[in-house]
Amino acid sequence: MLPVHLQPESHVPLYVQLRDQLRALVHAGDLRPGDRIPASRELAVALGVHRTTVANAYAELESEGLIQGHVGRGTFIRANGNGLKITPPAPPVLDGAQGIRWELLFADERGEEVLSRLTASEPEDALSFVMARPAQEFFPIEELQTCINAVLRREAVDVLNLGPSDGYVPLKEAILELLHKEGIAAKDENLLITDGCQQSLDLISKAFVRAGDSVILENPAYPGSVAIFNGARARCLGVPVRTHAEPGTSLGMDIEALEATLAANRVKLIVVTPDFQNPTGMSLPLTSRRKLLELAARHQVPVVEDHIYGRLHEREERVPSLKQLDRSNLVIHIDSFAKVAFPGLRVGWIVAPAAAIERLRVVKQNTDLHTDQLAQGCLAEFLRRGWFTKHVAKMRRVYAQRLAALDEALRKHMPAGTRWTKPDGGMCLWLELPPGFDASELLIHAKERGVLFAPGRYFYVQNPLPNTLRLAYAGLNEKEIARGVATLAELLRVEMKKRERGVRRAERSRVALV
Amino acid sequence: MLPVHLQPESHVPLYVQLRDQLRALVHAGDLRPGDRIPASRELAVALGVHRTTVANAYAELESEGLIQGHVGRGTFIRANGNGLKITPPAPPVLDGAQGIRWELLFADERGEEVLSRLTASEPEDALSFVMARPAQEFFPIEELQTCINAVLRREAVDVLNLGPSDGYVPLKEAILELLHKEGIAAKDENLLITDGCQQSLDLISKAFVRAGDSVILENPAYPGSVAIFNGARARCLGVPVRTHAEPGTSLGMDIEALEATLAANRVKLIVVTPDFQNPTGMSLPLTSRRKLLELAARHQVPVVEDHIYGRLHEREERVPSLKQLDRSNLVIHIDSFAKVAFPGLRVGWIVAPAAAIERLRVVKQNTDLHTDQLAQGCLAEFLRRGWFTKHVAKMRRVYAQRLAALDEALRKHMPAGTRWTKPDGGMCLWLELPPGFDASELLIHAKERGVLFAPGRYFYVQNPLPNTLRLAYAGLNEKEIARGVATLAELLRVEMKKRERGVRRAERSRVALV
Fold first, then answer.
1. What are the tens digits of pLDDT across the range A122-179?
2. Residue A419 half-sphere exposure toward CB, CA atoms < 13 A
3. Which positions in chain B touch A355 (Cβ < 8 Å)?
4. Is B193 in the A-facing interface, judged by CB distances under 8 Å?
5. Which tens digits make up the pLDDT trace of A179-193?
6. A346 touches chain B (CB under 8 A)
7. pLDDT class for B92, splitting at 50, 70, 90?
8. Residues of B in contact with A139 (CB under 8 A)
9. Residue of chain B with shortest Cα separation from A375
10. pTM of the model
11. B196 and B166, same structural domain?
12. Among candidates B10, B88, B7, B22, which has minimal Cα distance to B55?
């Protein structure tokens, strides 16, 4: 196979990377006139990218005169190709699939979200720590069915009709009641129903962020959040998340670094996940929360609090949310049903001061009119019957057991030189391999053994640490967790031994190619 | 009440208009120190705007020192106010609801969508021609319930789990089959499921449009489309839609004007509704469709075909869609279930060349991960059981009868000097009052009689004709249609008589204030 090495985390589109590397191989003489190159489907599978990526790269090289396809035989390096444009590129063909050069029309160089590509190539029976998703074996399906039937019996016409952009009234009422119980005194004008936290972030970005604006994110951060603000052409400034205690510092977002970033930049938004942060699992201590709010108020910067994991606290007591501590009305609090139950029902919400909600409502309306009402109606009923609270309590116990099993397995199997975070809840744990090891390389071997995880580099806003990785454990049971960790530890030991034996790094790195 | 006149169709935010007009009243001496101004809630009701709009205007005027609130007494023009800033504005208060000046942080001056404001103020029992929505008395609720139960019995875990961004597989398969039957040979890679046409337009805008890009829209157009491209800071170029035959021209989008616009501008997208266009009800003849595609191919501009009303054709034969005629693979075809049944279930789709779909899929993923899967699963089942096709056939008959009733009522009641379009399907008809009459004024009187419609000016990209209005008839039965039209005609006759009697225009315009 071709010695190509694509960097999914780069801002350069994959097809451009591929095109340039193939061109370089021709220039270097590694590929010569008459050489056959793999079919696009075949190369796509080998590289773990979408076929369109390869097809786009080939199309560009073909128009440059570097390669040529022959029906039924394959694609070859052209005789006169060798890097010199002898024939001018053909004019755009208007018939057939290549009619428009779509890639020239795109608004930006947006890359595919990497985690979903990892998941797309997952074998059916893989033991996957990749996605932070709830345990499907506990989906309260019967309860949901009861709710749907009640809703359709009672209010089918309302649910099936066009609805208000700010949300279906019965769901808004049920969520306001939930919020009140949880210590957030929101009113109807403070609440907007959305399609989930991803859309909430998108609406917030649309409402507040212009190209060139600076947004503070955690580093590492949730990639879906980075993708949104990159898509809006914002400057993403990462503030480090401390995953291990050091003298004089506290865990979670580094508040001193936040202060310095706010002082040095005119910042539009601070986006933070105070509870069980994705990907690290870290939580922000109370003093840091207070200090963060104080800094935000001083600089007049709204804070987006991602509360999506907030209810999955292992212990009884909770640190108050930023929204609860917010005396200056600057917190935009986003939340969703996706991590507790029903990620397939796309329903979330935003709690914020009325002026912010009113603008977000208009943006929501212009974006997709309103959120699906069948899902809203069902979830309202699910909340009203008390089943949500009951289900959350149950899932907290389940996830606490899984987290304990994960920590135990790591302590049992992982070699010295590794370390990991100690979350108090949520769905993710952050593992550091010994310095110099690359989690992406470990993943290649792990994949062969049917174990998958997300390399840490995909989560960094800047300064990626290649020796980190995320283990999303909530969807795996205790046995699977133990088996998965044992496999990873075994593979890591092999790699560590190889290194001890002084296998040359260059060679190992070559192995990582395709 | 205050002589304030807000223009909802202006790009200036309503609160800015209100603030400036109030300030002008103080400057002109119409409002004097010590005068009490209405409570924000009261003024909001009178103006038909959201309370936040008034609150925002008052907050700004208060910070300018022009007005002052006294707890329990009301808001007053300040003694030293009279337009002169004597005291400097107070520093931002960090406690309480005014902590952050949200209105200074918004990314743009996006106005509220006007139609929804019209609807929000609808009395419960109003006879409303405002929204283009399906007849709720025909919602196939029992069939839907059967589908939901089948889906939850068979595939609950799949539906409730996170799903693929391009759509739930069974729904994609069912829609591909529907498309094949309708003459569109799309493959899986050509199809993306979305939350409906509004979201499809938003995704297309995100994927293709940068600030400053030019987009061609119909004039008049669907306001939700205008809102999206304005939100993306595109230049919206309106191409006239011909609603009445003139020698040497054909109906629908003016293809000569399109050609001229394409020649004079570098255009990024052409957005067109070839069938039963919203708001005019016009359809594009076959020759115009061919010519449009030819122009688009020559200029290498993708065409967004809004097919949302396409299935609601009154007669048996149909003009082929742009997608069917597309030989150059430049059509992005958007469609939805919302106009046929179930607008409350937010599910639509995009059919386009694979390269465009792949990019739109990534944008969709970054926007909201994927569309609600319970709704997707139900609609897949609804399609598979043949109920969709059956329901469409039924609704075509219902809407054809309603359209006939509307045309008949207009012929019976409307005075000479009015004219209206003759749609062959869809949900909307476009009425022109005699030149010089303003549909917004007619609406004020009609509202008092419990009849509502959408003034035409809200639909124009540019050069609004105030004497136009849209009648969305699909949600009203024949009796209601007849009664509504009779009322409108009666009111129009009164207005025409007033004019004949030479009532001064200035005076009538004064009546229209607040």
1. 677 889 999 998 999 999 999 999 999 999 999 999 999 999 999 999 999 999 999 9
2. 6
3. 52, 55-56, 102-103
4. no
5. 999 999 999 999 999
6. yes
7. very low
8. 156-157, 160-161
9. B374
10. 0.80
11. yes
12. B22
| Residues spanned by the domain of A43 | 14-104
Is B208 close to A107, i.e. CB distance below 8 A? yes
- B365–A113 C-beta distance less than 8 A: yes
Give the tens place of pLDDT for each residue, B402-443. Answer: 999 999 999 999 999 999 999 999 999 999 999 999 999 999
How far from chain centre, in Å, is Cα B397?
25
Provide DSSP, A189-253. Answer: GGEEEES-HHHHHHHHHHHH--TT-EEEEEES--HHHHHHHHHTTPEEEEEEEE-S--TT--SEE
Q: Do A102 and B156 touch (CB under 8 A)?
A: no
Total domains present in chain B = 3
Residues B380 and B415 in one domain: no
Average pLDDT estimate for A81-103: 48
Q: Give the tokens for residue A29.
A: 């003489």
CA of A206: which chain B residue's CA is closest?
A: B107
- What string of H, E and C letters represents the secondary structure of A87-99? CCCCCCCCCCCCC
Q: Are A291 and A256 in contact (CB under 8 A)?
A: no
A93 touches chain B (CB under 8 A): no
Helix A255-264 vs helix A286-299: crossing angle, to nearest 10: 10
Residue A107 at interface with chain B, using a CB cutoff of 8 Å: yes
The CA R_g of chain B, rounded to the nearest whole Å, is 25
pLDDT for A85? 37
- Are residues B460 and B336 located together in one domain of the fold? no
Check CB contact under 8 Å for A375 and B372: yes
Mark whether B461 and B489 lie in a shared domain. yes
- Kindly report, residue by residue over A436-447, the tens digit of the pLDDT: 999 999 999 999
Residues 324-343 of A with CB under 8 A from B: 327-330, 338, 341-343
Q: Is residue B273 located within the same domain as residue B366?
A: yes
Is A496 at the interface with chain B, CB within 8 A?
no
Does B8 contact A at CB distance below 8 Å?
no
Residue in chain B closest to A93 (alpha carbons) equals B328
Confidence of residue B147 (pLDDT cuts 50, 70, 90): very high
Q: How far apart are CA A117 and CA A48, in angstroms?
A: 8
DSSP classification of residue B104 = G
| Chain centroid offset of residue B449 CA | 24
Verify whether the Cβ–Cβ distance A106 to B359 is below 8 Å.
yes
Residue A437 lies in a domain: yes
A369 to chain B, any CB pair closer than 8 A? The answer is yes
| Distance from the A379 Cα atom to the nearest Cα atom in chain B, whole angstroms | 12
Tell me how close the Cα of A2 comes to any Cα of chain B, in angstroms.
24
**Are residues B129 and B93 both part of a single domain?**
no
pLDDT number for residue B493: 96
- Residues A210 and A277 occupy one common structural domain: yes
pLDDT (0 to 100) of residue A287: 96
Q: Residue A337: what pLDDT?
A: 93
Residue-wise pLDDT tens digits, B229-276: 999 999 999 999 999 988 888 899 999 999 999 999 999 999 999 999
Give the nearest partner residue to B367 out of A106, A159, A199, using CB atoms: A199
pLDDT confidence tier of residue A248, bands split at 50, 70 and 90: confident
What is the model's pLDDT at position B60?
75
In angstroms, what is the C-alpha Rg of chain A?
A: 25
Instruction: Let me know the angle formed at the C-alpha of A147 by A145 and A152, rounded to the nearest 5 degrees.
Output: 95
Chains A and B: how many Cβ contacts under 8 Å? 279
Residue B278's nearest CA partner among B456, B114, B437 is B456
ipTM for the whole complex: 0.78
